[in-house]
């Protein structure tokens, strides 16, 4: 029987880029409403309309602390819930999870399935605003208080264990772990990497916890000795409590070390030109940029950190290299490995594609998501 599903997010871009396949799959059998910040990307609204998804837009910046904005978000979401009374509520990322889960309980929605795609800087030792982190953790504990109607979805086991350690969750909570949002292996198709003109690529928002400074410093070190090697950076720069400082941003935009491409609609041409995809992040849920790189046959370098380490196949054919968090010399050494061992660019890339097929196929993950939300029943 068809059900009504309400999805709440903090970015229309992430909705379509990361969960577009899932939304389409749900909409084939159920009525879907989406509560999202304003849609700015060309064609997104039209795609959702073709799926017969009803869109409700709101102003929200998930990375900025604003009491007024957050209250407005909550009031409008509450009114929407009361109006459509969904059977299933599916919020993801911190703000929609915290506010939406609480409101869904108040509205007596029968199935609440929040997904924590990553705990972010609020659970890292490098968090600059300790008060904000403390408040976020308290709100998360309050919102996720145990309920028979609540089932929490994680992208990695470490995040689940972290919430247990902070006593935000207990072992009595219903919790499930999926392998991230997955990657569409048809959309991100394999192409042979360029091992003659070596280039590194990083795809991430320009915030400290992504390891932007480490990538820049490593690139500067490498280019002093290998000036022909290129470094590209893709990602949005803007309001966020963890945004990189102005000095680093100016250095990046200067273009002497890194070619900063800004935010792009399609990362595939950039991955195609890259030899290796890099993400020296301090903590992730399951980094989509690495999955995209693996799907296109790229070797990867990432940190031995929560969420990131899961993208490296440690028990089979190796597809990438791990570095300690915030360790620039080790990051430089891993980059030099691929510069000096170009055959590894091919072999690691092929192994990464195989690993993506085994663990991160979006169709397998979305089928599991439907079961978790009990939307797979006829």
Total domain modules: 2
Q: Number of DSSP strands?
A: 14
Mean pLDDT over the full residue set: 93
Distance between the termini: 6 Å
Helix-and-strand structural type = alpha/beta
Order of helices and strands: EHEHEHEHEEHEHEEHEHEHEHEEHHH
Shape: globular
For the largest beta-sheet, the strand count, sense and barrel status come to:
6 strands, parallel
What is the class of the largest domain in the CATH system?
Alpha Beta
Hey, roughly how much beta strand do the residues contain? 15-25%
Can you tell me the CATH architecture of the largest domain?
A: 3-Layer(aba) Sandwich
User: Helix coverage percent of residues?
Assistant: 40-55%
> How many whole angstroms does the radius of gyration measure?
21 Å
Within CATH, the superfamily of the largest domain carries the name Glycogen Phosphorylase B
Spans of at least 5 consecutive residues whose pLDDT stays below 50 are none
Fold-level CATH name of the largest domain: Rossmann fold
Strand order across the largest sheet: 11-10-9-12-13-14
Distinct helical segment count: 13
């Amino acid at each position: 029987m068809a059900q009504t599903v309400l999805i709440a997010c903090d970015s229309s871009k992430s909705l379509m880029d990361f969960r577009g396949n899932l939304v389409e799959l749900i909409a084939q059998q159920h009525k879907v409403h989406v509560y999202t910040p304003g849609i700015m990307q060309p064609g997104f609204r039209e795609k959702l309309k073709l799926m017969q998804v009803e869109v409700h837009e709101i102003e929200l910046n998930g990375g900025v602390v604003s009491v007024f904005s957050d209250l407005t978000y909550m009031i409008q979401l509450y009114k929407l819930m009361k109006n459509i009374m969904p059977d299933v509520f599916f919020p993801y990322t911190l703000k929609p999870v915290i506010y939406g889960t609480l409101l869904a309980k108040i509205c007596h929605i029968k199935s609440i399935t929040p997904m924590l795609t990553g705990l972010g800087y609020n659970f890292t030792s490098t968090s600059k605003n300790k008060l904000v982190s403390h408040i976020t953790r308290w709100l998360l504990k309050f919102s996720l208080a145990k309920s028979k109607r609540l089932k929490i979805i994680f992208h990695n086991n470490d995040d689940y264990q972290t919430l247990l350690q902070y006593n935000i969750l207990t072992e009595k909570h219903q919790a499930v772990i999926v392998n991230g949002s997955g990657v569409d292996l048809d959309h991100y198709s394999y192409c042979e990497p360029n091992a003659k003109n070596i280039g590194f690529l990083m795809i991430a928002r320009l915030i400290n916890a992504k390891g932007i400074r480490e990538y820049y410093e490593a690139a500067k070190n490498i280019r002093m000795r290998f000036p022909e090697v290129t470094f590209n950076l893709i990602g949005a720069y803007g309001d966020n409590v963890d945004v990189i400082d102005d000095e680093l941003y100016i250095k990046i935009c200067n273009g002497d070390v890194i070619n900063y491409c800004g935010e792009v609609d399609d990362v595939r041409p950039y991955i195609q030109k890259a030899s290796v995809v890099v993400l020296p992040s301090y903590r992730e849920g399951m980094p989509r940029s690495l999955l995209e790189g693996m799907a296109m046959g790229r070797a990867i370098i990432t940190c031995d950190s929560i969420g990131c380490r899961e993208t490296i196949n440690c028990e089979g054919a190796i597809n990438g290299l791990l570095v300690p968090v915030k360790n620039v010399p080790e990051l430089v050494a891993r980059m030099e490995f691929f510069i000096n061992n170009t055959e590894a660019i091919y072999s690691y890339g092929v192994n990464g594609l195989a690993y993506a097929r085994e663990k991160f196929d979006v169709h397998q993950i979305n089928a599991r998501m439907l079961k978790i939300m009990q939307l797979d029943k006829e």
